[in-house]
From TrEMBL:
Protein name in UniProt: Phosphoribosyltransferase domain-containing protein
Parts forming coiled coils: none
Pfam families found in the cross-reference section: Pribosyltran
Source organism: Microbacterium terricola
Domain of life: Bacteria
Gene3D superfamilies in UniProt: 3.40.50.2020
Length: 242
């Protein structure tokens, strides 16, 4: 009797497999968001690497952008865990970086903290707004005056000029007339999205004091990595340029 091939049994087996997979996921121990050390959400060495180290750069259009961390190593892994793996507990760990950056960007009482809005697709996928969540954990009261109008294509893999064209006209602002604002976002790469936010806010009559991000992609990383490699080879790793 070939009962094993009966469609109902096949379906039952599929369902049991699905349940087993889900149960396993619940039982699997958590690991460090920065280094995968088991049984801990964030280990102490990784937490130490998330201590704010504020850097301010001026990007095209004269916008001053302050960042709390460099988007590399543990910081990059922790932020990816928050953005891609649903590790919402990481938000409180990177919150000090955003708070320090916001203060460096000129945030003070009376200045609005305006997050770059999450696309509808990203919100549906995650169920939370990354920047808003970090800002709340940082004690920064957010004013969601920016809205996504037209959807832009995925920015990944695009160059600076392509990104600028891709996002142009995608944001609009309401209720910001006469306000002074600091824009906040999670990570800055080329700054195209931040510049679009500036354009929309200015069009709505706001004054943009600056921008604050949790982490910034290091400038000329490739050059630095090459330099670091050479220095390492010479046993001189402590004197990295810049
Ligand atoms: Zn760790």
């Amino acid at each position: 009797m070939e009962v094993a091939r009966h469609p109902a049994r096949v379906e039952l087996a599929r369902q049991l497999r699905a349940i087993a997979t889900e149960t396993l996921a619940l039982l699997l121990p958590i690991s460090c968001a920065g280094c995968d050390e088991p049984d801990i959400a964030l280990c102490e060495p990784c937490r130490a690497l998330l201590a704010p180290a504020v850097d301010t750069r001026t990007i095209a259009g004269g916008l001053r952008v302050s960042s709390g961390l460099r988007f590399e190593g543990v910081a990059a892994r922790a932020i990816r865990a928050l953005k891609a793996d649903g590790r919402t507990g990481v938000a409180v760990e990177v919150a000090p970086a955003l708070r320090s950056a916001a203060l460096a960007a000129g945030w003070e009482p009376g200045v609005l903290i305006v997050p770059v809005p999450t696309s509808r697709a990203a919100y549906r996928r995650r169920g939370y707004r990354v920047v808003d969540l970090i800002a709340r954990r940082a004690g920064l009261p957010v004013s969601r005056v920016l809205r996504v109008g037209r959807a832009s294509a995925d920015q990944r893999g695009l160059g600076r000029e392509q990104r600028r064209r891709n996002v142009a006209g995608t944001l609009s602002a309401r209720g910001a007339a006469g306000a002074t604002v600091v824009i906040v976002d999670d990570v800055i790469t080329t700054g195209a999205t931040l510049l679009e936010a500036v354009r929309a806010l200015r069009a709505a009559g706001a004054e943009v004091r600056g921008a604050a991000v949790v982490a910034a992609t290091p400038l000329r990383r490739r050059h630095r990595e090459t330099a670091a490699k050479h220095l390492e080879l010479r046993g001189d790793g402590a004197n990295l340029p810049g």
